[in-house]
Design brief:
Blueprint: E1 2-6, E2 15-22, E3 40-46, E4 48-54, E5 60-62, E6 65-67, E7 73-76, E8 81-86, E9 91-98, H1 121-130
Antiparallel strand pairs: 1-2, 2-9, 3-7, 3-9, 4-5, 4-6, 4-8
Length: 134
């Protein structure tokens, strides 16, 4: 369960700004943005999200808990495998990134993660909720 509210005017806007509201059962598939200008600034406004940063083999290498009282903002560099796990009901975040919007292609979803809406998602999301950096 996730909803986006874009506050940029168009998908071609030079700066993309969107609010993301999410709930704990939401699966956000690990992905990357390979374009050299596609950094993301992720700011948690309410609730808690754990940001998972992965290496190329799918091992968690960083897991900052993000909330109003923990890490509040993280800039994710381009070409970094990442995903978020919603840890608290009522979570709202703000994402800012350079535009224009480019949809994530299949090659930029982590090959070691299941596609959304497949039977493997429940087990993988359960693993994501517990996974710790090696």
């Amino acid at each position: 369960m996730r909803a986006h509210l874009n506050v940029h005017e168009t998908l071609d806007s030079a700066v993309q700004r969107l609010f993301i509201a999410t709930e704990p059962p939401t699966y956000m598939r690990p992905h990357r943005h390979p374009e050299s200008h596609k950094w993301e600034l992720f700011i948690v406004l309410e609730g808690q999200i754990d940001l998972l940063i992965f290496n190329d083999a799918g091992h968690v290498i960083q897991r900052p808990p993000m909330s109003r009282t923990a890490t509040r903002a993280v800039e994710i560099p381009p070409n970094t495998w990442h995903a978020c796990v919603c840890m608290q009901s009522g979570t709202v975040a703000l994402e800012v990134k350079e535009g224009a919007y480019i949809p994530t292609t299949e090659r930029d979803f982590a090959p070691w993660s299941p596609p959304e809406n497949t039977t493997e998602v429940a087990a993988y999301l359960s693993w994501m909720r517990q996974a710790q950096p090696a």
